[in-house]
Design a protein that fits this description.
Elements (H helix, E strand, L loop, with lengths): L8 H5 L3 E9 L5 E8 L6 E3 L3 E3 L17 E2 L6 E8 L4 E6 L4 E10 L1
Antiparallel strand pairs: 1-2, 1-8, 2-4, 3-7, 5-6, 6-7
The protein binds zinc ion (ZN).
Length: 111
C-alpha cells in the first residue's frame, strides 16, 4: 500500500523531512498505526491528521474530542494514548504514554 505524504502548514513549520512510521504495541508487538512524522525529535504525540491507517483511527480530526476513544492495542488492550488538544497549534492529537509504542520506519522520502 502506498501513502502520499500530507503537506500543509504543519509540515512546513517542521521542515521538509518526513518519515512514515509503522507503530507497534510495546507489550505484544501488534501493529497499531501507520503515521507520518514531520521533522526531527521523539514521538510524544500522534496528531490525528497524520494517521494513515487503520481506518478506525483516521479522520479523527473532524470529530469532537470527546467522541474519540482512548488509543489502545486491539490485541492486548494495553492503553497507548489519550486524546487531547495540543494547544500550541490547537491541533487534536493522542498524548502517548512513554514507551507505549515501538516505531519502525516504513519509507524514507524527502519533500
Ligand atoms: Zn498489545
Amino acid at each position: 500500500m502506498y501513502f502520499e505524504f500530507k503537506k500543509d502548514e504543519y509540515k512546513s513549520a517542521r521542515g521538509t523531512y518526513s518519515r512514515l512510521l509503522n507503530l507497534f504495541c510495546r507489550v505484544c508487538g501488534e501493529k497499531i498505526l501507520v503515521y507520518q512524522k514531520d521533522g526531527p525529535g521523539n514521538l510524544r504525540r500522534l496528531y490525528f491528521d497524520r494517521i494513515f491507517s487503520p481506518k478506525k483511527w483516521t479522520n479523527l480530526e473532524s470529530k469532537p474530542l470527546n467522541a474519540v476513544q482512548i488509543l489502545s492495542c486491539p490485541k492486548c488492550k494495553e492503553d497507548i494514548g489519550t486524546p487531547y488538544i495540543y494547544k500550541k497549534e490547537n491541533r487534536k492529537a493522542f498524548q502517548i504514554y512513554q514507551d507505549a509504542l515501538i516505531k519502525k520506519i516504513r519509507k524514507l522520502k524527502v519533500g
